[in-house]
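Whether sequence alone determines local backbone shape is best considered at the level of individual chains. The sequence in question and its structure tokens are set out directly beneath this paragraph.

***
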Amino acid sequence: MLCLRLTPLLVLVVSLGAAFPQEGTPRKGCSLFKYKQVIFHEMKAMEKMQKEFRSIRRLDRTCNTRLLDRTWTSAHLSVPDRVLLVEAELNFTIAMLQRPARPSFARTRQRPLAFLAQAREDLQGCVAPSHQPSGELRQWLQNLQVAMERENTSCLEDYAIRHVFEVLGDLNCAARQEKC
């Protein structure tokens, strides 16, 4: 059972530095432009990581990570909510990728981990501390917290790696100021 608590994560995500003025555009220090298109070699590195992971790990059928599935897409969220979503997804995915692993997988995950860590750093301070997440996002963040408390770490790690392209899609969507 993973003993990480997401309450500090939720507080961090909600109370990031001021970034989105009333019209919803990011502040000058918030640079997400480079994520409008994820570079091909980064996508290949993620794909290689997934393939390597699948070759060494079989999914435990007792996993209940459906808690984290969504009936909505990030495109339906406001720009600040998109950033909060991606930041929470990145924190979760990075935490799972930093877990101990076989040497071959540890090498394979280095590039994706570095890319995701850079994206998380670039997102810091992109949401006004006064921004309150929408009901849909708030519920998903609560589900993430519940899953982190109740689900075993192998299930969470499997979920994070299987959904890494969804995180990249959400990052791309957050980088766009218009609907994606």
